[in-house]
Specification:
Radius of gyration: 17 Å
Number of domains: 2
Shape: elongated
Strand content: under 5%
Order of helices and strands: HHHHHHHHHH
Structural class: mainly alpha
Largest sheet: none
Number of strands: 0
Helix content: over 70%
Oligomer: single chain
Mean pLDDT: 87
Distance between the termini: 45 Å
Low-confidence stretches: 1-5
């Protein structure tokens, strides 16, 4: 990965024993590309190995629309425990309110997945004022029976 024109394919990247130096160089090269090209690369990594793809997404994606796509993908692919990593990947770029808004938009179609995400969101938010912003959604999920009361939230 020493040439800027030569970026390893996502398949090669996922299969590599990634060293810090190689990853820094790849991130630097990807950041020079358009958001659409970065998203295409990250999306392929997510398809191959979600944990590697999320690490890369956190470092190279900045467009809020693309980060919302990552969140929606996480709701579809993540389970009750792994959705945490998807939330952590997009939270710095989207912020708590935007993540909560996106979750509210899909709650009626995917109540269990959103409830799983809300559980982790409430536990990941460092600011209690922001944590209160998602309380209404958490209470709705609890009232609907998708999230148990008193367990971490």
């Amino acid at each position: 990965m020493s040439s800027e024109a030569c970026v390893v394919s996502p398949r090669e990247y996922v299969g590599l024993d990634r060293g810090r130096r190689d990853e820094i160089e790849l991130v630097r090269m990807l950041r020079k590309r358009s958001e659409a090209e970065r998203w295409e690369y990250v999306r392929e990594c997510l398809d191959l190995d979600w944990s590697v793809g999320l690490g890369l997404a956190r470092r190279v994606l900045s467009d809020r629309g693309v980060l919302c796509e990552v969140l929606r993908l996480g709701l579809d692919r993540g389970d009750a425990s792994t959705v945490r990593w998807w939330i952590e990947a997009v939270l710095p770029g989207l912020g708590v309110r935007r993540v909560a808004r996106e979750l509210a938009l899909v709650y009626s179609q995917k109540p269990q997945q959103v409830s799983n995400a809300l559980y982790w969101l409430a536990n990941l938010v460092p600011n209690w004022r922001e944590r209160d912003d998602v309380r209404g959604m958490i209470e709705r999920a609890q009232d609907d029976g998708f999230l148990k009361r008193g367990r971490g939230v």
